[in-house]
From TrEMBL:
Keyword field: Methyltransferase, Transferase
GO biological process: methylation
The protein's name: SAM-dependent methyltransferase
Taxonomic lineage from the root: Bacteria, Bacillati, Bacillota, Bacilli, Bacillales
Domain of life of the organism encoding this protein: Bacteria
Length: 386
């Protein structure tokens, strides 16, 4: 089979909507930061798309492409990669390309034909169902009495569901022989705090104690009332500043969802000082680094306010992840939710491992801060640990 025949065969079947999944791997260049690409079909706004998942060393990124725009993408993948495993409804295909694009094509039609389950994609299987009444969601005004999610609250509902998926993944890292202490810093109206309590305590029956902390007295008082009314005995709400919060000697999991600016850093610092096993944090607006940036070498970027703002936000999150990894955490930046829902879509996930960093890692971190001429809040807070 020639390269062109291979391309046509794959493309035709993808355009006929017969794709189940595909994995494209073996980058031609070692320097390619995307190590692997996964494809799957998906319906978005009633249109057939291909979801492209780019797997970097430590992060995943997603891009949803309309089917008619996909052929151009596939061509670039074959320029950059040499292997593909493709699962069609009735055939598994393995393609191996030589450096000069000689094609090795293996096909297996022995398994029973599969269905492309687009209906499943169309309706996401949330951990909290979107058609079942939950007392806490009704009280928080997210659902109607009948269990229908209110339209203006759908984004929030998706965010808390997604967050709970990350919490669910992290359960293996939490203690099983005693009560698990969980803190939600900057809990605000506490949609997430209630949702995680409901999921872990009521649905999974875990022995947990959850605290939501926020500066806003009235909001916290209302949350306390709701928790009491619902009989959520192990859920408490406290008024306070994250920076002054010293009530606990140990906390197992710290979560934050859109805690403003350095409030996220305060929460990360607290979590590290407690030696929390799990940290899950979706940051919010970031101003601190933006104000400090002073790097003539980057002026071509930084002269544009918009680029400066985005660069500062991304650099802040990268520095946060790096600091966590320098103080004994396996830290990753993950896509929290699609950009259509909220642009604040990076989640910092850190599991405590106690692993010591290499001297190279420390040197890279120092060089990056020197380049930016910056002294981030978290670095100051955790100076003694770094
Ligand atoms: C954007 S809201 C997010 C609320 C909630 N986590 C959510 O996602 O719905 C940020 C919250 O962080 C709280 N906050 C900001 N700085 C704080 C601090 N230093 N200590 C405690 N709470 C803080 C604010 O009062 C606000 O309620």
């Amino acid at each position: 089979m020639t390269f062109e025949e291979m391309r046509t065969q794959l493309m035709e079947r993808i355009l006929q909507q017969q794709l189940i999944t595909a994995t494209i791997s073996q980058p031609r260049m070692k320097s390619n930061e995307v190590k692997r690409i996964k494809l799957k079909p998906l319906i978005l706004k009633d249109a057939y798309h291909i979801q492209i998942e780019y797997q970097f060393e430590r992060i995943l990124k997603h891009d949803n492409v309309l089917l008619e725009d996909f052929p151009a993408r596939l061509d670039t993948f074959f320029n950059d990669y040499r292997q593909a495993h493709v699962d069609f409804i009735d055939e598994k295909v393995q393609v191996q390309l030589s450096k000069k694009n000689k094609v090795l094509w293996k096909s297996d039609k022995s398994s029973a034909p599969k269905q492309v389950n687009l209906a499943h994609n169309r309706k996401k299987n949330y951990l909290l169902a979107d058609d079942k009444p939950y007392p806490f969601l009704i009280r928080l005004g997210v659902q109607t009495e009948e269990g229908k999610i209110k339209q203006q609250k759908y984004d929030k509902f998706k965010q808390i569901n997604r967050f709970i998926e990350f919490i669910d993944d992290a359960l293996a890292y939490l203690p099983k022989d005693r009560q698990v202490r969980i803190l939600d810093f900057g809990s605000g109206k506490s949609y997430l705090t209630f949702a995680l309590y409901h999921y872990l305590k009521i649905e999974k029956g875990l022995d947990i104690h959850v605290t939501g902390l926020d500066l806003k007295k009235e909001v916290i008082e209302e949350c306390s009332r709701i928790a009491e009314d619902l009989g959520y005995e192990q859920l408490e709400f406290l008024v306070g500043d994250i920076n002054d919060y010293n009530d606990e000697s140990a906390v197992d999991m710290v979560v934050t969802l859109h805690a403003c600016d350095v409030a996220t850093d305060m929460a990360l610092a607290r979590a590290v000082k407690w030696g929390a096993s799990v940290i899950l944090s979706v940051p919010c607006c970031q101003h601190e680094l933006n104000r400090q940036l002073n790097t003539p070498a980057l002026d071509i970027m930084l002269q544009h306010g918009l680029v400066r703002e985005r660069f500062a936000a991304l650099a802040t999150d990268a520095i946060r992840a790096e600091i966590l990894s320098l103080v004994g955490y396996e830290a990753q930046l993950l896509e929290f939710i699609d950009m259509e829902n909220t642009p604040k879509n990076i989640l910092i996930r850190a599991y405590h491992t106690g692993k010591k960093p290499s001297s190279d890692q420390r040197a890279h971190y120092d060089a990056f801060l020197k380049l930016l001429n910056a002294k981030p809040f978290l670095a100051n807070e955790l100076q003694a640990y770094l």
